[in-house]
Design brief:
Bound molecules: zinc ion
Strand order of the largest sheet: 1-2-3-6-5-4
Distance between the termini: 80 Å
Number of helices: 5
Oligomer: single chain
Shape: elongated
Helix content: 25-40%
Radius of gyration: 24 Å
Structural class: alpha+beta
Number of strands: 6
Strand content: 15-25%
Largest sheet: 6 strands, antiparallel
Number of domains: 2
Length: 184
């Protein structure tokens, strides 16, 4: 099987951390993992805890920006974000059920505490949560920049209180009226 990432290496059978079956590129060091192999291993070792690489360096990780081709089907693979915080994306071939990890990305997953849930990263549910989390984070950023920390905290508390009141419509009207004691 030829490597579709670097186009110069060959994907050779290997074991990730000596644990589960994969294929590793002889040239770029990327890994091709079948979800099936990972899940089979996980079912047999449900309590395995992954340890972080002691000499792990974020800068050493490569990330392919352009779309990759699946080494098995030859079709385009889909990119999936690993976490809301990280810009790193792994490549997934849905038709084959395979994941491509660039060199170092397995260590990134371990350091993020996500190695044991590798198969879940590519599920719809996982992706939905990331979208939700990042939009919440970006809204918070916008409000913080607008109101400042003390102002934001205060208005948040005020809104929470307001939303609980049975007569909240009247309270909001009072708040929004420039002079609530004048008829005009
Ligand atoms: Zn390669």
């Amino acid at each position: 099987m030829n490597c579709t990432q670097c186009s110069s290496g060959v994907l050779k059978p290997s074991f990730i951390d000596g644990l589960f079956r994969a294929h590793t590129c002889t040239h770029c060091g990327g890994n091709w993992i079948l979800i099936e192999d990972f899940v089979t291993w996980k079912e047999r070792n449900p309590d395995h805890e992954f340890t972080e690489e002691p000499d792990w360096q974020a800068e050493a990780i490569e990330d392919t920006r352009e779309a990759l081709l699946c080494p098995v089907s030859g079709g385009f693979m889909t990119k999936f974000k690993i976490t809301a915080q990280s810009e790193h994306r792994i490549d997934y071939s849905a038709s084959v059920g395979g994941i491509w990890l660039d060199k170092g990305e397995w260590d990134l997953l371990k350091s993020a505490g996500l190695a044991s849930t590798l198969n879940r990263i590519v599920t719809r549910h996982w992706q939905r949560n990331i979208v939700k989390e990042s939009s919440k984070e970006s809204f918070e950023g916008i409000y913080l920049a607008k109101f400042g920390q003390p102002g934001y905290e205060k208005i948040k508390a005020m809104k929470a209180w307001l939303d609980e009141q049975p007569n909240k419509a009247d309270l909001r009207a009072y708040l929004l009226t420039k002079d609530p004691y004048s008829l005009f």
